Amino acid sequence: MAKNPVVVIAGLACETSGFSPARTPAAAFHPLRDTEIIEKYHFIHRGTPLGDAADWRGTLIGHALPGGIVTRAAFEELVGEILTRLKDICKSTPVHGLWFDIHGAMCVQDVDDAEAELLRRVRNVIGSQVIVSASMDLHGNVSEELAHQTDLITCYRMAPHEDEIDTKERACRNLVELLAEGSFPNRPLKARVPIPILLPGEQTSTRLEPAKGLYALIPEVESIAGVLDAAIWVGYAWADEPRNHAVVMVTGWDADVVTESARKLANHFWDSRKEFRFVAPTGSLEECIDTALQSKLRPFFISDSGDNPTAGGAGDVTWSLARVLSRPEFQHESGPRAIYASIPGPEAIELIVRAGVGATVTVTAGAQVDNNHGGPVTITGRIHAIRNGDRNAITEAVVQVGSVFVILTKLRKPYHLEGDFTELNLEPRSADIVIVKIGYLEPELFNMAADWMLALTPGGVDQDLPRLGHRRIRRPMWPFDQDISELPDLTPRLVPASNEQLRIH
Questions:
Q1: Microcystin LR degradation protein MlrC N-terminal domain location, by residue (predicted)?
Q2: Which domain holds residue 337?
Q3: Which residues of the chain, if any, have pLDDT below 70?
């Protein structure tokens, strides 16, 4: 091409639990538009190799905190704006590429395969000749339709996702390099293998085997001549659509190479299925607390995993907090120093703000969204801290109840960073026990923890998948069906290019 190709950016991301009663509105996506999108991603700034290699045009992207199903109204509103902005760009210039910035596990009310539906509508505006490169979370889902609509597709290779930005940059680099070759309509070949495995992220962390070794195979595959990209999706365990399962895809120019490479990765994944274990020792909440109290290692972290807001939990399940506060060990200020993060309570926050730091208050919080596992909790304690202005929580407060410092929020918020605690005048490193609504510990918490257990608690992202009641996933599926006697068909299939007809298998 004589001048830089025009590349548009669009996408919506929300990891969605179909087992949470919460609903996700449009505002939760915190949409970015036009140049705000360019500003967000440093690797496409002017003066960088990628930034100077294309004319980047932002439409709209939205990244919501994981949560409940996206309302149909929210989806239509955001998609409608994306399409309008795309049409405006297409009126003034030819579009050569699209960076599809998604997560891959978004569920929308009355819409199956939401990301494929979004891309189908986008294709209706930009046409089938535009090259699409998608970047995804490895906990996303890749249906055959989504694989077909994209030309390049990749995902994270680490869980926790320390390579998120690297993955997005790789998707853009692959796109720009392909556009520079001007090789159309000879598009890359895509070999896809669906694998009948559906496991939670807490059993597939790349910190441990077998996921560590599985993902270590990707650089080996990519070093083979004729391969552009290799990707492994674990899938998203807490939704219930036919697309929810593991997938391997290899993209490249040599049909034999990409299919054989995809076969190798898929077979390794399937052969390892019985080796996947939780990333930390597990137990009931009571067992975890007992172990923490008996341990001399401090701080001792406990993951309250069933209501993890960064996996799609509503964040306001009170089941665990009620049990923590009922423990006799925590009834007095002189007891073991514990931190509990967190529970939303908008009305409680209003009372706390009016009372001020140092005051003693009685407030009620939680179970406004998910009351399937206990009702609201009423606590009486001294206000330790108040903080305003957080992007997610809006307002946060800490109330000391006995020896437990309970973090309350106006809106739900994940607590992943040490600063999330220290900004509330809490010192997690000095605490005896830190209980966090999370699954596997994010890097800062992991490095801080002297020891750690994962509590198998109830909620919208319950780790006990069979008791959630999946009805629409394809069966048989490991580990739902542990008596699978026949080897599944792991034959890689070449997915037709985006400008060719797809016949769903």
A1: 7-293
A2: 282-462
A3: 1-2, 183-185, 503-505
